[in-house]
Amino acid sequence: MSKGKQFRTKLALILFGLLMGVTIAELGLRVVGYSYPAFYMPDDTRGYALVPGMEGWYRKEGEAYVRINSAGMRDREHTKAKATDTIRIAVIGDSYAEAFQLPVEQSFWSVMQERLRQSGFVPGKQIEVLNFGVSGYGTAAELLTLRERVWDYAPDIVLLAVTTNNDVADNSRELKKTDEAPYFVYRGGKLVLDDSFRTSSAFRLRQSRLSRLGRWIKDHSRCLQAVNEGHRGFKTLLESWKSRRKTSSAGPPSTQSDVSAQSEELGIDNLVYLEPTNRVWNDAWLVTEGLILAMRDEVNARGAKFVVVTLSNGPQIIPDPNARQAFMRRLGVDDLFYPDNRIRSLCLREHVPVITLAPELQAYAEKSGSFLHGFGSDLGNGHWNSVGHRAAGELIAQQLKDGVLDK
Q: Where are the strands (E) in 285-378, listed by range?
């Protein structure tokens, strides 16, 4: 046998072995139920959206088998036509409403729905809650969600769930640091949509046939999903290691005046606890407040009721008051409720019904000694766990029952 033929034979055997190995691995992963698909796809209006009908495991934080309904909502199926005996509540928010971290029935809006049904919220009426939450959305994308998706379901109540630790920053291109999202900006005293992301090369590439084919292959190949999860896990460990080194070497901030310098040390999300002292944060807050009022006006114009609910952040509701005090000293602040109080003041001034959860959740956490944020070894950080979702859902339901919408 010639050397060339021997080489081709060996190469064919190697390729056949690789193919068989990948096939066996693919079958094995499917047998054990391994599935980590990409739940998001490009969207011309909001930058990205949930993929209708997608399902699979989510274990980046917590653990749940996630199903996206046929309309692209992390929710049960809903008909667009509303029954005459039904009160519909549309929840608009980000990852807290999306709630990938736990089963859908444990989400705060599912708990809220059950409590409202039990309490006879509106006598003679059924209560149906619809979840339009998508991870990473700021108030800009949420207003666009209201316009593009929510009204198709004719809700009677629109509940805006505000995540204070990142929603304000998400409304600023300079703070969010991405061009692949829609923003609103003030021009001539009016909020104007900036959807220039649609013409960016990155967005066009994600919309291309080749990219769509790549997403389809990844969504249907458990081996590629495993490789992707391994890469993500390695990056997470590396970032955690870097963060620990940075935290251990950092001292307390020198002053509260130089916000841009503090952002590198304290992190963008933590700067929301400080009263803004520079143009970027002032603009982010003004746009956020303007978007909340714009949403109120559109909801009221449709004859529905609007309510703002500010959620909580991990540091605000750590059960140990000494730990909270240490965090405040590091930030150089005396109060962790600045963003909640600012939004509450806006709402009271502008006659917008508002529910402020963080102070009540802090009292609950301190009294019970429970962590409401975080999972496993990372308690106190990240999203609400099942305890947090349950407490939040019960509090919202109670405030709605007590007539917050009529105040």
A: 305-310, 354-356
The first and second tokens of residue 199, run together, are 């013409």
Three-class DSSP category at 153: helix
At 37 the three-state DSSP class reads coil
**In terms of Cα–Cα distance, which of 211, 224, 214 is closest to 30?**
224
Nearest to 396 by CA among 321, 307, 331: 307
What average pLDDT does the segment 37-45 reach? 90
Q: Helix 108-119 vs helix 386-401: angle between axes, to the nearest 10 degrees?
A: 40
What span, in angstroms and rounded, lies between the C-alpha atoms of 183 and 195?
7
CB 324 within 8 A of CB 318: yes
Indicate if the pLDDT at residue 280 is higher than 70.
Answer: yes
Torsion of CA 64, 68, 73, 76, to 10 degrees: -80
CB 291 within 8 A of CB 140: yes
- Measured at the CA of 218, the angle between CA 385 and CA 93, to 5 degrees, comes to 35
The tokens for 27 are 């079958």
Asked if residue 136 lies in contact with residue 166, where contact means CB atoms within 8 angstroms, the answer is no
Q: Output the pTM of the full model.
A: 0.83
Cβ(170)–Cβ(136) under 8 Å?
yes
> Which single residue is written with the structure tokens 């409403």?
97
Sign of the CA dihedral running 239, 241, 244, 248: negative
Q: Torsions phi, psi of 195, nearest 5?
A: -110, 35
Which phi and psi angles does 90 have, rounded to 5°? -95, 125
Phi, psi at residue 33, to the nearest 5°?
A: 80, 20
- 140 neighbors 288 (Cβ within 8 angstroms): no
Q: Does 223 have pLDDT greater than 70? A: no
Residue 86 to residues 77, 90, 167, 336: CA-CA distances in angstroms?
Answer: 16, 13, 31, 39
Residue position matching structure tokens 């700021």:
138
pLDDT > 60? residue 258: no
| Token couple for 112 | 């809220």
pLDDT digits (tens, 9 = 90+) for 100-140: 999 999 999 999 999 999 999 999 999 999 999 999 999 99
Q: How many Cα atoms within 13 Å fall on the side-chain side of residue 225? A: 23
> Does residue 309 register a pLDDT over 90?
yes
Using DSSP, state whether 52 is helix, strand or coil: coil
Any idea what DSSP says for residue 137?
Answer: -
